[in-house]
Amino acid sequence: MTYRPVLLSPSDIAHLIGKPKGTVTRWASEGRITSYGGLYDWLELRDVATGAVKVPPKRTALPVGV
């Protein structure tokens, strides 16, 4: 099965998670969420929306060639 992100604008994501748009773009710049040309994957932020976490964790780089 192939993963397919659900891409939304920063404004849409901000509305759904109840945070300012700037927070969404900051999380992307910090490496907490993936940016797809200025759009963001809603599926990466479901835990924030449900209150399971307050901030998405920083992602670690995957080793190359492993």
What quaternary form is this? single chain
Major sheet size, sense and barrel closure: 3 strands, antiparallel
Q: On the 0-100 scale, what is the average pLDDT?
A: 91
Note the overall shape. globular
Give the % helix.
25-40%
Structural class: alpha+beta
Distance between the termini: 21 Å
How large a portion of the residues is in β-strands, by DSSP E?
Answer: 5-15%
- Contiguous helical run count: 3
Low-confidence stretches: none
Order of helices and strands: EHHEEH
Specify Rg, calculated over alpha carbons. 12 Å
Adjacency order of strands in the biggest sheet? 1-3-2
Protein described:
- By secondary structure, this protein is an alpha+beta fold.
- The chain has helices spanning 10-17, 21-29, 46-50; strands at residues 7-8, 35-36, 39-41.
- It has a three-stranded antiparallel β-sheet.
Summarize the structure.
With 66 residues, the chain is an alpha+beta fold.
